[in-house]
């Protein structure tokens, strides 16, 4: 195995917020085992490394393929969000440039009377959101509910649905969907 196994183990352990002592406890090995591996003083066998990684838990494949320095953005300023507006409402996408996104997160603003259109939306996966401000009318199949600040929704997105601002002030929502449809 590469001389970098120790460096990689330390980076992964740190990424998961574990101390050497905690990882050793979880893996059923001594603290000195973790320390000597991380200092690259020993090259663990595949079985030994698998035992240590079970304390995270992480597979050997994930350990060797996880991109610890992928350079992808993690934090986004307001101006970094990509606007997907159709002119009747604002939908700002978080992390639009991330490769292989498995989640869609939106910051949505509906003006009074604004909605997602007359046609009901149908897509694969699940959708959830929390109303931050205003009133949002959510239609899912035959069910209709008006939600206020702090109220939330979560449903199977294959059921026809739509959203509409049911109040007289701007409605703000933070939503997520998986898998991302855009």
From TrEMBL:
Presence of keyword DNA-binding: yes
UniProt GO MF annotations: DNA binding; DNA-binding transcription factor activity
Ranges where the HTH cro/C1-type domain occurs: 9-63
Pfam families: Cupin_2, HTH_3
Keywords per UniProt: DNA-binding
InterPro entries: Cro/C1-type_HTH, Cupin_2, Lambda_DNA-bd_dom_sf, RmlC-like_jellyroll, RmlC_Cupin_sf, TransReg_Diox_bact_type
Organism domain of life: Bacteria
Entry GO terms, CC: cytosol
Protein name, UniProt field: XRE family transcriptional regulator
């Amino acid at each position: 195995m590469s001389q970098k196994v120790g460096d990689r183990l330390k980076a992964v352990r740190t990424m998961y917020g574990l101390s050497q002592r905690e990882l050793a406890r979880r893996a059923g090995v001594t603290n000195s085992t973790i320390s000597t591996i991380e200092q690259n003083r020993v090259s663990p066998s595949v079985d030994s490394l698998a035992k240590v990684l079970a304390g995270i838990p992480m597979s050997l494949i994930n350990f060797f393929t996880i991109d610890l320095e992928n350079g992808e953005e993690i934090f986004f300023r307001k101006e970094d969000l990509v606007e997907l507006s159709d002119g009747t409402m604002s939908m700002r996408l978080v992390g639009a440039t991330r490769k292989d996104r498995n989640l869609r997160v939106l910051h949505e603003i509906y003006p009074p009377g604004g909605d997602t259109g007359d046609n009901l939306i149908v897509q694969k996966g699940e959708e959830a959101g929390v109303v931050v401000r205003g009133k949002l009318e959510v239609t899912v199949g035959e069910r209709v509910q008006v939600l206020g600040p702090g109220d939330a929704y979560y449903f199977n997105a294959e059921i026809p649905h739509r959203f509409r601002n049911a109040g007289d002030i701007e409605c703000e929502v933070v939503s997520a969907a998986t898998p991302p449809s855009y």
